[in-house]
C-alpha cells in the first residue's frame, strides 16, 4: 500500500469517527448538530472542556466507545503521516534498498556496464526480448535517465569488485563491457572473468589495437561500434550496387595469421580425420601438406599421418612468432570427467584458453571409455561420480595398460589422507583438493601437468 493511499484511508477513518460520534450524540442525548459535533471533537481530542449537558448512562458508554475508536483512528493517521514524511526524507535509501533486494533475487541475468548510446541500444533489445538485466553506471545524468525508465541499476565504478558483486555477477549469465574507455573495459573484463570464470563476456573496443588485449584478458568477443557501422554502410552500398560480399567474414580474419602445425610421430592427431580435428580445435583447416604436395581445403574424411603439415588460421601473438609455438606438435587433449555441468563448462573454457583440446564426460563409465579411446595427455576426474567412482576409473585405466602416458588427476572434496593414498595406489598421478576458486584449481592442474612433462 502506498503512503498516499494510507493517508487517504486515515483521513476517511477520522471523518467516519467524527460523523459517527456526532450522529450518536444527536440520537442518544438529543444534542443539536453543533453541540454533538463539539462533544465529538472534545471527546476524540480528550481536551477535557466539559460536557455540554450531563450525559446519561447510555451517553457515557457511547463516549467510552468513541474515545477508544478515536485512539485507533488517530494512531493509524499518525503512523501514516509519519511514515509518509520519513519516506520523503529517506526515499533515496528506501529505493536503493528495494533495488538491492530485487537484484539479489535475479538468476541468470545480464549485466550492462555503461549506459551510453551502445548500452542504451543493448538495454532496449533486452527489454523487447523480456530478459532480466542490471545496469552499472556512474554518470549522474545517465543515472537520472535510468531512474526515469525504472530499470534495475547499481551506481558505481564497474571495474570495482564490490560493484560487480552487488550487480550479482556470481549469478549472472553474461556481461557487456560498454564503458567508453578501452583501458577501463580491459580492467573490467579481467575483474569480471576472475569473479565468474563461466560468464559470457562481450566488450566494446574503440581502438583496433585494444581488441586482442581485451580478448586475452578474458572476453569472449569484442565489438567496435564505429567499425561495425562502417562495415554495415559498406555492405549496404555493395548490396545496392549488386556487389554484396561477406564483409563480416573478411573482418573476422583481420586479427589472425596462417600457421603450420606438424603431426609428429605419436601425436594424438595421427589417425584422426581432418573434420574431427577441425571441430576439436575450433579452427578451420585450410590446407594439408603431405610428402611435398599441397592440398587446399582437404576433404574432412582424410586421415592424418605422422609428418603431415596442416595450415590453420590462428590469432596473432604480440611479439611472438606463431610458427615457433610449442603447439606445433598439436594441442594436447584433456578429458574432464564430472557430473556437474557447471564444473564441466568452467574447466572446458579454462583448458581451451590454456591451449588444450578439452573432452568431457558426465559419468564414470562414459569417462572411462573416453579416456581409453582418446588416450589424452591428462584426465581430470571427479571422485564422486555415477556408475564408477574416480578411484575406480584410475584403477581400470591403469589395468588396461594402453594409457601409460596419460596423467590422471583426481579431484576430491575429501581431504582425508586415506582417500589420497587409495587414489595413488589406484594409479592417480596426483590428488587435488577442490578449491572454491576456479582459477586456483586450474593453476594447480596445469602445474601438475607441467611438472609431469618435465619429469618425462
Summarize the structure.
By secondary structure, the protein is α/β, with parallel strands linked by helices.
Please explain how this structure is put together.
The chain is an alpha/beta fold. It has four domains: 3-89, Helix Hairpins, CATH 1.10.287; 104-223, Rossmann fold (3-Layer(aba) Sandwich); 256-329, 2-Layer Sandwich (Alpha-Beta Plaits); 333-455, Rossmann fold. 51% of the residues lie in helices and 16% in strands. The protein has helices spanning 3-29, 33-45, 57-89, 91-104, 117-129, 140-149, 161-166, 182-195, 208-217, 225-240, 247-251, 274-281, 341-353, 364-374, 390-400, 417-426, 438-455, and strands spanning 110-113, 133-137, 153-155, 174-177, 200-204, 221-223, 256-262, 285-290, 293-296, 309-315, 333-337, 357-361, 378-382, 407-412, 430-433. The chain has a six-stranded parallel sheet with strand order 3-2-1-4-5-6, sandwiched between helices. The chain has a five-stranded parallel sheet with strand order 12-11-13-14-15, with helices on both faces. Helix 2 packs across helix 3 (57-89), helix 8 runs parallel beside helix 9 (208-217) and helix 15 packs parallel to helix 16 (417-426). The longest helix is centred in the N-terminal third of the chain and has 33 residues, at 57-89. It is elongated and about 125 Å long. The N and C termini lie far apart (72 Å). Mean pLDDT is 78; it is low at 244-257 and 315-329.
